[in-house]
Amino acid sequence: MSSSQRQLHLGLFLFSTGYHPAGWRLPESRTDGAFDPKFLHRVAQQLEEAKFDFFFLGDALASSADMQNMFPSQMVRLEPFTMIASIAAVTEKIGLIVTANTTYAEPYHIARLTASLDYLSGGRTAWNVVTGADARAALNFSREKHWDNTKRYDYADEFVKVVKELWDSWEDDALVRDKESGVFVDESKVHAIHHVGEHFSVAGPLNVARPPQGQLPLLSAGTSERSQELGAQFSSAIFTGQILIEQAIEFYAGIKSKLTKYNRNPDELFIMPGLVPLVGRTEAEARAKYLELSELLVTDFNLAPLSGRIGIDLTGLPLDGPLPDLSLSTHPVHEVQQLVRLAELASGHEDISVRELFYYFTATARGHLLIVGDPEQIADHMEEWFVRRAADGFNICPPYMPGGLDLFIELVVPVLQRRGLFRTEYEGSTFREHFGLARPDNQFTRTSALQGS
Ligand SMILES: Cc1cc2nc3c(=O)[nH]c(=O)nc-3n(C[C@H](O)[C@H](O)[C@H](O)COP(=O)(O)O)c2cc1C
């Protein structure tokens, strides 16, 4: 590809035992990385050497032991603010995304924690705004049930506005620290926010000075209309799970078209689908690893969820028999055909069995696309999604750790760089700079300037 101005953005979506549910069972995989600071530091430093945009840790506020076969990495992990603070101390350039849930928090707390992390990381922090994918969280926070989508996003909208005001409550030059005059702070540049809304009343100001990035970039990942509006209004990047390119293109265009309503430029928001790259030095090596992982799944081969996914009842069919006629599907047939095609590509042959479709479905059940191939094949896929505007970059989810990440960095990143798709050096040192996002003016400074004029 000829080099163009537009560049791919790459982040790591950390699953400490790998994205594949059986990733931890490979002989070479680490099983205990989630709680080992040395492991986590090494991963972040490795990403920085490879010039990744960011390291991202998701979060949930509930758990149970029965998550072990499908979601071992999400069952138990470190609290994000604490972990990211530790990583900030051993890295210098890589962006750091911390997840905080608005449904079970107070804006003052989150403004304070995020602003503090932005200082500790030298302007490298961004906030993934979630309203909570796990409804069981309610039971851990003295509530009877998780709020519905409307209430969660009403709350989140107001929450985010309050946090943004708190970040601005100290103008950039409020702290004059003038030894001569004895003036430590210019009080005219410190603003109580006096927020009184439907859900929050917050006087302000914050007790942390304006963060290095002024306003931390926000990220979001919801699928509902309300979440997409929140993203279009406030987010710098949207995470998404997309398997089929046509749907991904539609999603991309749909989100970007919402931005004008908020006086935003489509280039200020980056769409980042997840990608699970199962890379080998050769295609055969990658395919052998995929098969090895598939056979390590701990499963009772319950075909009900897969039947729902493809709109054909597979229960009772022999696992090693052929798939039924796909035109029987109650879903759009071409989508089911494309899903099966992806499973065939991963398996390396056509006419896959029910078992082989089950393997692919289980590996991608969390919604991110798994591609099996050699470095050029993985890069081809990424380039196609990037050029056709299905993606501005990818949230890389290595299928096993650390080997899956090592191979991606060693083999795929250089191909992307050679094709002019990915940076070979950082141009800046903050999260905003990695994405070419300007540092916003302080809303209070702007208002006083307008009043002055
Ligand atoms: C890539 C990706 C990462 C996500 N990370 C989290 C997370 O860390 N914590 C969380 O509660 N939800 C997470 N979610 C879920 C979304 O925030 C959102 O709640 C979910 O997609 C449902 O959409 P809705 O909130 O619009 O109904 C993630 C979703 C995606 C696609």
UniProtKB/TrEMBL annotation:
Coiled coil: none annotated. Gene3D superfamilies: Luciferase-like domain. It holds the Pfam family Bac_luciferase. Keywords: Flavoprotein, FMN, Monooxygenase, Oxidoreductase. InterPro entries: Diverse_substr_monoxygenases, Luciferase-like_dom, Luciferase-like_sf, NTA_MOA. The keyword Oxidoreductase applies. Residues 26-389 form the Luciferase-like domain. Its EC number is 1.14.14.5. This is Alkanesulfonate monooxygenase. It comes from Paenibacillus eucommiae. The keyword Flavoprotein applies. GO terms for molecular function: alkanesulfonate monooxygenase activity. Belongs to the NtaA/SnaA/DszA monooxygenase family. PANTHER family: ALKANESULFONATE MONOOXYGENASE-RELATED, C2H2 FINGER DOMAIN TRANSCRIPTION FACTOR (EUROFUNG)-RELATED.
